[in-house]
């Protein structure tokens, strides 16, 4: 059985931008709308923001299966539902017209990792925006008009009043940040240091400030990004330098003893990882998030780590609870911090290659693809 909503009359199909070869333009193709089985839903994509990992795939820095439909920061509206219906994370059945977002990861919910609290590392994991675009589940990425949601998806209903440009990155950048803070522990009253002032770092600064950190410091190589971080809650900033002694002196200006209680490394720089572990105070938590591609090995002082009771953790992807926290955070804070301004331009799906070129050259924090949008515009 199938409950249907109105579809475009063009032969029950969906336009999608296909990634095939690194360095080449994406190709616009049409895919048939699949028949829905139990616990599946067809979602019309309202907005998809382009993550840095998408750009790395397109440029060849990151390997993904091809052909594929990229894009995993997705917001959409339920168009059709299978029977029995797919449910959200609260156990409520989806209905046609629901505005939803969902975890990038699709998990089985039954393996040892899922049952132990790591569904984001499920043994049979699949990921939206990262899978091959073939067969029934070809429509699995955000650079399309429609996407097919599968059983095992962690779905959350979204308030229609929340601006798309604010909420769209929630199921990648924002949820990753909330996962990092969940692992890092208490924020209130602690001195927080954040390496990287991209989407992750700016979100991390706002989250720390919103949760009553004693002091928030952001480090980056880009002076404009550092200045922007002040609008997202940074009390002080550090411009990165490779010299360890010089960098420690700069850090001292942001903390009484040049040390920090909670450190998030979001840049992926091996030298920043070393600095993060060097600047942790006694009992500090250091959470490594940015090192998701091959990088040089790092040098650590084990004795220093032991004597300082330093806790070093790695975070990759996130659990459904982190997505819920992220959505609540953006709902509560988007009027306090200028998240909507981080999406610098909006493009239509048919202008996707123009959008990618702009993102690669101008290096904005985010751009957005809205399938029903006509032309492109600055969002400032």
Q: How does this model look, in words?
A:
- With 380 residues, the protein is of the alpha/beta class.
- The chain folds into 2 domains: 2-163 and 334-378, Quinone Oxidoreductase, Chain A, domain 1 (Alpha-Beta Complex); 179-314, Rossmann fold (3-Layer(aba) Sandwich).
- The chain has 11 helices and 18 strands.
- The strands form 3 sheets. Strands 1, 4, 5, 6, 7, 8, 9, 16, 17 and 18 form a 10-stranded mixed β-sheet that branches. Strands 12-11-10-13-14-15 form a 6-stranded parallel β-sheet, sandwiched between helices.
- β10, α5 and β11 form a beta-alpha-beta unit.
- The longest helix has 14 residues, at 320-333.
- Residues 1-10 have low confidence and may be disordered.
- Keywords: Metal-binding, NAD, Oxidoreductase, Zinc.
- Residues 38-157 form the Alcohol dehydrogenase-like N-terminal domain.
- This is alcohol dehydrogenase.
- Belongs to the zinc-containing alcohol dehydrogenase family.
